[in-house]
Design a protein that fits this description.
The protein is an alpha/beta fold. The protein is built from four helices and three strands. A three-stranded parallel β-sheet has the order 1-3-2, covered by helices on one side. It is globular and about 35 Å long.
Length: about 100
């Protein structure tokens, strides 16, 4: 099932959840061919956190955030935050999200 909401509605929803401030999330952005897949595998084997490798939603979000006009910087930050917190929705779990 798919729902569509406006960016502002998503931002309000995420900001209304103060218990999920992102402290449980590690976001790693690495260049290709640097051993990041091996690092993800090693982190996953510890079973201390959920590993998410190159989530499709984040790839598009970061592309948009870095190519948009600077006057939209606050919206870009909120959009990235909302996307990350939507992927890592359980504040009691630790997440490692690999980008790149």
């Amino acid at each position: 099932e798919l729902i569509t909401v406006s960016h502002q509605a998503l931002f309000r929803y995420i900001n209304a959840k103060p218990y999920n401030d992102g402290r449980n999330i590690t976001l790693s952005y690495m260049n290709g061919r640097c051993g990041s897949t091996l690092a993800c595998s090693m982190i996953h084997k510890t079973r201390q956190c959920t590993v998410v490798s190159e989530p499709w939603a984040m790839l598009d979000t970061l592309k948009y955030a870095y190519t948009a006009h600077p006057k939209f910087q606050a919206d870009n930050h909120n959009f990235i935050k909302a996307t990350v917190l939507t992927i890592a929705k359980d504040p009691k779990r630790k997440y490692f999200i690999k980008m790149g």
